[in-house]
Design brief:
The complex is a heterodimer of chains A (about 260) and B (about 425).
Chain A lengths: L10 E10 L4 E11 L4 E6 L5 H8 L7 E6 L2 E2 L5 H8 L2 E4 L11 H6 L8 H6 L4 H13 L15 H14 L4 E5 L7 H17 L3 E5 L3 H7 L2 E6 L2 E6 L6 H8 L10
Parallel strand pairs in A: 3-8, 3-9, 6-7, 7-8
Antiparallel strand pairs in A: 1-2, 1-4, 4-5, 9-10
Chain B lengths: L16 H45 L9 H18 L3 H6 L1 E5 L7 H14 L12 H6 L1 E5 L14 H22 L1 H9 L5 H7 L7 H32 L7 H20 L2 H11 L6 H25 L3 H9 L4 H37 L4 H11 L3 H28 L2
Antiparallel strand pairs in B: 1-2
Helix pairs in contact in B: 1-2, 2-4, 8-16, 9-12, 9-14, 9-15, 9-16, 10-12, 11-12, 12-14, 13-14, 14-15, 14-16, 15-16
Classes of the chains: A alpha/beta (about 260), B mainly alpha (about 425).
Bound molecules: adenosine-5'-triphosphate (ATP) and magnesium ion.
Magnesium ion (MG) binds next to helix 1 of chain A.
Chain lengths: ~260, ~425
């Protein structure tokens, strides 16, 4: 019973299943949902519920075991590796552990966002066009780190590193941004500032955002829609307001108490 | 129809060899257990006594003394102390071996019984008669028994899983090894001291350097340094590419895994052959090349194997995060290598290379001893030629060289930490 809606959604996930061979873990079970262009979709769920796996299946950092994914009308799951790379450059990604190259400067990290657009030999020589360098500085400016451009990232704070991560994603001029628990390693105040950058990208640049978050309060505050995973299954799909106490206990288990992040 | 067990057997157990062995074994076992506890207690008390006496003598009396009492008083004190401790409390040995003194069957472990145990101890343990019985006589008569200390409802851990068991085993192994070592090498050890005087000439020659050879020796020293530099450089050129093929995390799949296995295996074989052996191999191989070239080859081969291992292990420990992130930007495989992997390994690689260069300087002198060229060869020539003064000069130079390179390489490596 798969019916594509009339106005083609931006992202369609159909019967997505992922089995990790090692350990025989069923990480995602028959997941189906759609995302429209311009949405800010928040994925919630307990640790181990499969949020990271889901996000990585979308840009195929992890190969799905079964199921199909369409992005902007094209079937991602059918593409060859070479073509997948072309698709990936339009998909920005930021990570819980930031995943920056610690020994490089902020600007060097940000520039790697352009690698998908650069011919191979130029990439190997590190020969980025002048406008890329200007763009990198502009991206850093946008996240308020212009003055840290030539500082090694291992000398930056957690919040600053995540902003470098955002600047790197900005360099890709993404249409879709995947954010895997972008604020789990940060304190509440910093979390909000990071989330506001994501919100800004979503509202001003029209980037579709899919973010996994731990705190329901953050999800309610920033998401336009929420999906919830439990043991790899979809247990909720709807507006942030629709999650009441009963739903909450269903997603997080009987003993859970909601914690606010202000 | 309950005949007691053994009733129908033809001979009483103590008339058969197996029966005697069995009975002796059980008795020895009981005694061993008992003495293990006692020795640990007495040893612990003795050490404590000595430490306290020493500290007291040193700080209060300003003298060096270990017991402060006649040795027999010390012995009696320690032995009695251990017996008291073991009879009335949970002693050190009991704690370590996980045992405690308790009622044998049903009888109270009251203070009175414990006093009886302690007194019987003197009667039967000191003369050793008690241990002709199993359980030992004083245990039998007092109704107390050294038994495993166990928390209710838990299975006892085998000795090799308890810290005390491992401690005792380690102690035994070290003691035995030391005993065996000293016994075996005793004649040589004795000669080491007895014949020390005969080397006086040698030492005298060593400390009166012959400065006339400094120029030649200096030239050989430069040869040695260059041997090390060349061997290291050429080894790096080979080892860097190989290290990628020898990294477990990069070599996956049906082709990668065998390559990884074979390469790592080959490298560990090569590495396990010392450079001096390689030098001999190459000296035989490249006959009539009794020269620095054979030495360089030897160091080169060994350095490759060593560096591949060091490099590959570093590669295996890299952070996967950046790889994931760079892949997600749409970069190709080579770009991922260039931007996610190489930045993580450059400094460690340089550091390992410097470390290996440092080793190679030392190895180059050793390789020289078998004819691999450089300062080592000069040294061994002087020694065979009984030119001890010249040999001493060369040795001093080598010490200075090794020390200087060691210092230099450590300082450089700090920068790449
Ligand atoms: N590489 C892997 N190999 C085997 N099993 C894995 C692997 N990665 C994840 N898993 C398993 O898949 C399940 C889902 O993991 P996933 O990382 O997607 O959860 P998550 O919701 O992101 O959790 P968290 O909030 O802790 O990040 C877990 O049970 C995990 O143990
Ligand atoms: Mg996760």
């Amino acid at each position: 019973m798969v019916c594509l809606p009339m106005a083609n959604p931006y992202l369609v996930v159909e019967h997505l299943t992922k089995v990790y061979e090692r350990g025989q873990v069923l990480a995602l079970r028959d997941l189906s949902f759609t995302v429209d262009k311009g949405e800010f979709l928040v994925v919630i769920g307990l640790s181990g519920s499969g949020k990271s796996t889901l996000l990585r299946c979308i840009n195929r950092l992890i190969e799905p075991t079964k199921g199909k994914i369409w992005l902007d009308g094209g079937e991602v799951t059918r593409l060859s590796q070479a073509r997948m790379r072309r698709v990936r450059r339009k998909i920005g990604m930021i990570f819980q552990q930031f995943n920056l190259v610690d020994r490089s400067t902020a600007i060097a990290n940000v520039l790697t966002g352009r690698l998908g657009y650069l011919p191979g030999w130029r990439a190997l020589l590190g020969w980025f066009p002048e406008e890329d360098r200007e763009k990198a500085l502009a991206s850093l400016e946008r996240v308020g780190l212009r003055d840290k451009a030539y500082v090694r990232v291992d000398q930056l704070s957690g919040g600053q590193r995540q902003r470098v991560g955002i600047a790197r994603a900005l360099m890709q001029e993404p249409e879709l941004l995947l954010a895997d628990e972008p604020v789990s390693a940060l304190d509440p105040a910093t979390s909000h500032s990071i989330m506001q950058y994501l919100e800004q990208m979503n509202k001003e640049d029209g980037v579709t955002v899919i973010a996994s978050l731990h705190f329901l309060s953050l999800a309610r505050r920033y998401g336009t829609r929420i999906i919830a995973l439990k043991d790899g299954q979809l247990v909720f799909d709807g507006s942030p307001q629709a999650i009441d106490n009963v739903k909450f206990k269903e997603i997080y288990g009987e003993d859970a108490e909601e914690v606010e992040v202000r | 129809m309950g005949y007691p067990e053994g009733y129908l057997s033809e001979r009483p157990p103590w008339t058969t060899l197996a029966g005697i062995r069995n009975a002796l074994g059980r008795r020895a076992h009981a005694a061993g257990r008992y003495f293990a506890v006692f020795l640990l207690d007495a040893g612990g008390l003795g050490i404590l006594w000595i430490l306290v006496s020493y500290a007291y003598a040193w700080y209060v009396l300003h003298a060096t003394a270990y017991m402060l009492v006649p040795w027999w008083l010390f012995a009696v004190g320690v032995v009695e102390g251990a017996a008291l401790w073991g009879s009335f409390g949970l002693s050190l040995g009991q704690r370590l071996l996980g045992r405690e003194l308790g009622p044998a069957e049903g009888r109270e472990a009251s203070a009175r019984v414990r006093v009886r145990y302690f007194l019987l101890w003197h009667a039967f343990v000191l003369p050793g008669i008690g241990f002709l019985f199993d359980p030992p006589l004083h245990e039998r008569l007092s109704g107390l028994r050294l038994r495993p200390r166990r928390i209710e409802g838990t299975a006892p851990a085998p000795w090799y899983r308890t810290s005390s068991g491992l401690f005792v085993a380690a102690l035994l192994v070290v003691t035995c090894a030391a005993a065996v070592g000293v016994t075996i090498s005793w004649p040589a050890l004795a000669r080491l001291f007895r014949q020390a005087g005969e080397t006086a000439d040698f030492w005298r020659a060593l400390v009166s350097p012959d400065t006339s050879i400094l120029l030649d020796a200096g030239r050989d020293m430069i040869v040695t340094i260059f041997m090390a530099v060349l061997a290291t450089l050429f080894a790096v050129v080979v080892a860097v590419p190989l290290s990628f093929l020898a990294a477990r995390n990069l070599m996956t799949g049906p082709v990668g895994r065998p390559v990884y296995t074979i390469l790592r295996g080959a490298m560990s074989i090569i590495r396990s052959i010392e450079p001096i052996i390689w030098a001999i191999i190459f000296l035989v191989w490249v006959t009539a090349l009794r020269s620095a070239f054979a030495g360089v080859l030897a160091l080169w081969v060994h350095s490759i194997a060593d560096l591949v291992k060091l490099y590959a292990e570093r590669l295996e420990a890299i952070d996967q995060g950046p790889i994931e992130a760079i892949t997600a930007t749409g970069a190709g495989r080579l770009s991922v290598l260039r931007y996610a992997i190489i930045p993580q390994i450059v400094n460690p690689y340089i550091s390992f290379t410097l470390y290996r260069w440092d080793i190679n300087i030392r190895m180059a002198t050793v390789v020289g001893l078998v004819g691999g060229g450089g300062i080592g060869q000069r040294l061994i020539n002087y020694i065979w030629g009984v030119q001890y003064r010249q040999a001493g000069t060369v040795m001093i130079l080598i010490v200075i060289l090794v020390w200087a390179i060691d210092y230099l390489s450590a300082r450089l490596r700090e920068k790449f930490a």
